[in-house]
Specification:
single chain, 71 residues, mainly alpha, 2 helices
């Protein structure tokens, strides 16, 4: 959901800038690059969140194992 919203905002901004630009090909490339950058940023944010979740899960499992081993 967040990725599609961010992508939509970048595309809207890019198209607005493209309308003011003279070379249409450069504007299209810039728009495509901006969309790809937004998509990559959203992917990176999702990966970071998943990594944080995995780290928290691993920490909890380690704490459980340490408690069991201490007995």
């Amino acid at each position: 959901m967040t990725k599609s919203i961010a992508l939509s905002l970048v595309l809207a901004a890019s198209l607005g800038l493209a309308a003011c630009s003279k070379p249409a090909e450069n504007a299209a490339n810039n728009s495509a690059n901006a969309a790809m950058n937004a998509s990559n940023a959203a992917d990176n944010a999702m990966n970071a969140a998943m990594n944080a979740s995995n780290a928290a899960t691993n920490a909890a499992a380690n704490a459980t194992n340490n408690a069991a081993n201490a007995m």
